[in-house]
Amino acid sequence: NLVKRSESVSQGECERVLKKPKLQLSDFPVLLSPNMKPYLEPLAQRAQSITIQRFGKTMSLFAPMYLSNWCYNRCTYCGFSMELDYERVVLSDDDILKEAKALSSSGIQHVLLLTGEAPDKAGVDYIEHAVRLIKPYFSSIGIEIQPLKTVEYQRLIKAGVDTLTVYQETYHKESYMIYHLSGKKSRFDHRLETLDRGGEAGFHRLNLGALLGLYEWRYEALAIAYHIDYLKKRYWKSKFGISFPRIKSFVGQFDVQYPISDKELVQYICAFRLLFPDLSISLSTRESEALRNQLVHLGITSMSAGSHTEP
Fold first, then answer.
1. Which residues pair with 212 in a beta bridge?
2. Phi then psi for 275, rounded to 5 degrees?
3. Distance between the two ends of the chain, CA-based, in angstroms?
4. pLDDT per position as a tens digit, 272-281
5. Closest CA to 250 of 282, 219, 213
6. pLDDT of residue 289
7. pLDDT averaged over every residue in the chain
8. SS3 90
9. Cα–Cα dist 17/23, whole Å
10. Could you give the angle at the alpha carbon of 177 between the alpha carbons of 171 and 180, nearest 5°?
11. For 246-272, what is each residue's pLDDT tens digit?
């Protein structure tokens, strides 16, 4: 059990791993260990050094654009869950262009299109049309939508999409089934295989992650690391990225059983930077300005900005 391995390593092992010039996947449990806490400063310094070496002192900004909040899934932690009673919206062409022009005029060149999972309201045809509408305004378009088939992803790539983002939410299958009560999203394996379909379709970048707070963060980190390692070997033409969203307030109520502290989030981010030096690491607007200002130095290469999570 890699989580138990992580929890049982000695401080001597932590020091040994921190001194290694190149880290391997087998070192990752050590980087996540509770006994790494006394070494957070050297861990952070090394993460910062690697980031500057690989990316320079640059930061990519992107803006999420929510096309629709219609969703037919019942997920206990999500503000789009179908049983919640509030106005559901699908943006019209005029709405989409208004959003695109506003974001573009503010200097944003990278946009991420999002929808709930309601194919009859915002399906592939609608999303492809939206991509073609906004393509003149942005240099990069990503999608975070319902899982699709490989041929459907190829359609969207042809329309102008270069990045696919899919969060497994939690890699702990038993917990996943508790949180996802009904709808297509309740199929754990189908969602897990989505990035394979994206890799087969040929996306320039594949982004993944877990929603922190749904299960123990060390378990999620280890699962993501092994998932990235697998994907990098199989879809080596694609670049990869990761994000670290933490559950925040939304329409409805949810009791977070597995909170992750700010210091643990720092350890999480730095560990991924040390293991995957070329990984794009994103920080979301879910975090406070003060924390974002501290974290940007530790391995972050991409941040979301100028967005509201309700269409």
1. 246
2. -80, -40
3. 42
4. 999 999 999 9
5. 213
6. 85
7. 93
8. strand
9. 7
10. 100
11. 886 554 567 888 999 999 999 999 999
H helix or E strand, kind and range, residue 130: helix 124-134
Q: If DSSP codes are grouped into helix, strand and coil, which group holds residue 158?
A: helix
More confidently predicted of 121 and 250: 121
Reading the block at residue 18, the tokens are: 């921190």
Distance of alpha carbon 25 from alpha carbon 272, whole angstroms: 10
Tokens 């087969």, residue located:
200
Residue 304 to residue 11: CA distance in whole angstroms: 36
- The two tokens of residue 147 are 């899982």
Torsion angle in degrees (nearest 10) through CA of 89, 188, 147, 206: 120
**Which residues are CB-neighbours of 57 under 8 A, at least 6 positions away?**
none
Residue type, 215: Y
Q: Beta strands 180-182 and 74-75: pairing type? A: antiparallel
Q: Which two tokens stand for residue 247?
A: 């559950």
Classified as helix, coil or strand, 278 is coil
- Residue 92, helix vs strand vs coil: coil
Of the candidates 6, 29, 19, the one whose C-alpha atom is nearest the C-alpha of residue 225 is 29
